Each structure stands twice: as C-alpha cells, then as structure tokens.
Amino acid sequence: MLLRSMHAENYRSLRSIRMDLGPVNLFVGENGTGKSNLYRSLQLVQAAVRGTFAQEIAAEGGMASALWTGRRRPNEPIRIRLEAELLDEERAITFCYRIEAGLRPPAAAGFAFEPQIKTEELAIETSSRPVTVLKRAGPGIMVRNEAGRMEEYPEQALTSETAMALLGDAGHYPEIGTFRRAVSQWRFFHGFRTDRESPLRQPCLAVTAPMLDEDGGNLAAVFATLSHTRQDTVDLDRAITDAFEGASLAVPEPGEFASFGLVFPQFPQRTFQPRELSDGQIRFLALAAALLSYRSPPLVALNEPEASLHPSMLPPLATMIASAARSSQVWLVTHSELLAREVEQRCGIRAKRVIRKEGATWIEGMRLTGEIAEEGA
Fold first, then answer.
1. 3-state SS class at 6
2. What are the backbone dihedrals phi and psi of residue 326, each rounded to the nearest 5 degrees, phi first?
3. Cα distance between residue 369 and residue 18, in whole Å
4. 376: which residues sit within 8 A by CB, 6+ positions away?
5. Which residue among 178, 231, 241, 305 is least crowded, i.e. fewest CB within 10 A of its CB?
C-alpha cells in the first residue's frame, strides 16, 4: 500500500505540516531545519501501530522533549497529532489513521512524562463516504463489528496504550489487521553502528533473511539469502563493483552461521573480512542489503545515508535507491546535494527542500494543502 499523505502537528519542530507523497520522497536541507523530525514522525506512526508508541516517546526524553515548544494559540490543547493516509491501489481503498497524544491530567493514572493517548481513529474510504472502523476517546474504544455496526470493545485501553495495537492483536477485525500489517512492514534505517562490535561486522545465524533488520544484525544472512536462495545478485554485484572500484562480494555457503567478505582486484587471492573493512565500506554494504534485499518492504526510509561514505560511493547509492524504488516507496533524508542530484536524475523527481518558517519546519514552496507549488506550475 502506498503512503499517500501524512500530517504531523506539535511534534518537536513540526508545528503543523501536511504533505502529499509519491513513490520517491527526497528531503534536502541544512542542519537544524527538522528533516529528521519528519522522518521520526513517520516512525512514530509505525510505533503506534506496533504498540510501542509510549516507549518511543519515553526514549527521546518523554512528552516534555517531544512536544512543540514554540508559541501556541490561547487555550490550545497541548497534543501531538499524527495522521497517515494509505492507498491500497489493488482494491481502491484508502485507509486514514489518526492519533493524538497529550500530557497526563492532574491526578490521572499513568506516569508523568509518558504520552497519554487522547483520541485515535481508523477510517476506510472506497468510492462512497468514509467509514469509521475504529474510534477511541480516552480509554474507551468503539469498533465496527461484522454486521457493520459500531460497538463498544469489551476491554479498555491503558492511557499510554494504542487501540490499534490492542485490537490488531485480537485478530477479529480484518481492516485493522490489513492496515497494521502494511505499516508494520515499513523499514527505517537511521545510520548503522560501524565500531568493532557492530552487528554489521559479526557472523549471524544462518536463517533465511528476506529483509534487513533495522540494526543490520542479519546482514550476512541477507547476503546469503540473495546468493544461495534467490541466486540472483546482479544489482548487488553491480553496486559493489561501482562503489569499490571492481571489488566483489564473497558469500560462502552457510553452515551454522552466515558470513561474507570482499575481494578487491588488487588482492584477488584474499578475502577481506567485515572486521577489516572501513566504516564507509561496511555502511555501504548495509545500505545495499537494505535496498536490494530478497523481499521489498512497502516503504523504506533512509535518514542521512551518506554519513561516512566517500563521495565516489554516492552515485552507486543513488542507483540502488532508484532500483529499490521499482518495488518500494522510498523516503530519503539527506544533507548531501550530490546525492540529491543523483537521485533526482535517476528517479525523475524533484527534491523537497526543508526550511525553517517562523521557527517551524516547512517545505519550500509547499501550500497548506500539502501540494508543492512548483510541481504544479
């Protein structure tokens, strides 16, 4: 399913921003403009669906850190609001999900700095009017039953618990399950550890790996799956050859563990192990596994993937992004003007330039409706 639009309000530097999205979404901007907050707001939608929203907010310092701290209108509720609209193109169904989280009221249950879910809603729309499938206000949840009537769900949600996760686990509501599965399969890659103990540098259990884990811990298994299960590494081999001046990937038949190495043309008799590779080399290999894995995630999001990469690696990275975009929706945040130009050329798109407008994150040339003015010109 295609993520058609998103809306984020009162989250960090995002005062209120709504944007239409396409198959490839490229965000470029200076430090401090809030590019990563856009990426993070989308990640929080997935956290709400998975049931880890409260943990994610707590991990970034709690609601006190997550809330917009700029000027507010008088009597405005202090709430983070996130919305996502997904289009199921095969069935011509649009899923609209919204969640609002605020602070704990005085003398209420829950911990002081964890988010309190105020409202939550999932609606679906076909050719007729939108139909609400799930609606939550406070702890009470209303859900549409098999007969098409809204009824009260017998269990109340905890103040920081999402109804989407609670009902999705119940297994009785197909629309909720469909939406939850789609969003749960999104993949977010925000840098990879490259130190000596990094998961990228370690052998891993030889278990078939259709997609890369977000920490890269199954990197060797992803390469083994491509090499020995699919037996098709054409795009992967081309990317590695281009990035490393003729080098090739060596992936032995897995035993108990999967492993890999690089063979450089200057040393054809020797395989360099992951522990011997530079930070940029191992990071590029992780990006290759993220973008060219056996199975394509519905959406793959990369936050500043150019970190530690030599400029000569950016054109091959852009080629991998264009290849991934044939089967996945792509969300890319970058500082690099070179990478942005390379992606623009290969994907036939225009970058969304992130700026600060009256202290808040904004997209240059974007209308309040979420459309980019230049694209319609």
1. strand
2. -70, -25
3. 7
4. none
5. 231
> How many CA atoms are closer than 13 Å to the CA of 315, on its beta-carbon side?
7
Question: What does the alpha-carbon distance between residue 285 and residue 45 come to, in Å, rounded to a whole number?
Answer: 28
What are the two backbone dihedrals, phi and then psi, of residue 7, each rounded to the nearest 5 degrees? -140, 130
Which tokens is 232 given?
Answer: 């098709």
pLDDT at 367: 82
> What six digits make up the tokens of 313?
């690696």
Tell me the three state secondary structure of residue 175. helix
Going by C-alpha positions, the residue among 377, 370, 296 that lies closest to residue 25 is 370
DSSP H or E run through 45 = helix 35-50
Report the largest interatomic distance among the alpha carbons of the chain, rounded to a whole angstrom. 71
The DSSP string of 214-270 is TT-TTHHHHHHIIIIII---HHHHHHHHHHTTT-EEE-PPPSSEE--EEE-TTSTT-
Indicate the helix (H) or strand (E) that contains 280: helix 279-291
Tokens 């490229």: give the residue: 26
**Helices (H), strands (E): how many in the chain?**
11, 18
Q: What is the pTM for the complete model shown? A: 0.91
Residues 245-302 pLDDT 10s: 999 999 999 999 999 999 999 999 999 999 999 999 999 999 999 999 999 999 999 9
* Identity of the residue numbered 34: G
Residue 251 CA to residue 261 CA, distance in Å, equals 7
What is the tens place of the pLDDT at every residue in 40-74?
Answer: 999 999 999 999 999 999 999 999 899 998 888 87
Apex 293 CA angle, 288 and 296, nearest 5: 120
- Strand 131-137's sheet: what is its strand order? 14-20, 2-11, 79-88, 93-102, 116-125, 131-137, 140-144, 150-152
Distance of alpha carbon 32 from alpha carbon 12, whole angstroms: 12
Neighbouring C-alpha atoms within 13 Å toward the C-beta of 287: 32
d(CA 274, CA 285): 10
CB 136 within 8 A of CB 148: no
